[in-house]
């Protein structure tokens, strides 16, 4: 596929492949939409690793990392299907947040009010022990 262009024929074959792989309708539609966007980005240019890297950079400028990775998953899947594994790109590394934001923490006063409210609800036996 490197050095080739994305064609309507290859897109249709890929769509059939996704359906045969029993992907959900929503997944098929999403992947096909993402490939149409990639095709427009390429503007008829041949697929290359460099072009896919440029596309990833464009996505990074506009979307959150999770969204970028979802879009790149569709692109990488298509590239693998068409035999162009050399053009696939790595997904973004997303660091999980180990701790909750302090803004979302309950203050001691809020915690005590929550416990008091729970104790006063007769149907919540679990909190009677506090």
TrEMBL record:
Core-binding (CB) domain location: 1-83
Name the record gives this protein: Core-binding (CB) domain-containing protein
Upper lineage: Bacteria, Bacillati, Bacillota, Clostridia, Lachnospirales
Lineage: superkingdom: Bacteria
Family the entry assigns: Belongs to the 'phage' integrase family.
A Pfam short name: Phage_int_SAM_1
Keywords: DNA-binding
UniProt GO MF annotations: DNA binding
GO BP annotations, alphabetical order: DNA integration
Record InterPro entries: CB, DNA_brk_join_enz, Integrase_recombinase_N, Integrase_SAM-like_N
């Amino acid at each position: 596929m490197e050095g080739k262009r994305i064609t309507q024929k290859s897109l249709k074959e890929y769509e059939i492949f996704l359906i045969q792989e029993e992907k959900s309708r929503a997944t098929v539609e999403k992947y096909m939409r993402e490939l149409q966007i990639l095709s427009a980005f390429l503007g008829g240019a041949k697929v290359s690793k460099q072009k896919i890297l440029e596309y990833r950079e464009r996505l990074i400028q506009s979307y959150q990392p999770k969204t970028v990775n979802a879009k790149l998953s569709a692109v990488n899947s298509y590239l693998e299907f068409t035999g162009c594994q050399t053009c696939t790109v790595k997904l973004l590394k997303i660091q999980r947040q180990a701790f909750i934001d302090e803004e979302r923490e309950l203050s001691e006063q809020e915690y005590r009010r929550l416990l008091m409210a729970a104790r006063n609800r007769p149907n919540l036996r679990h909190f009677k022990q506090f």
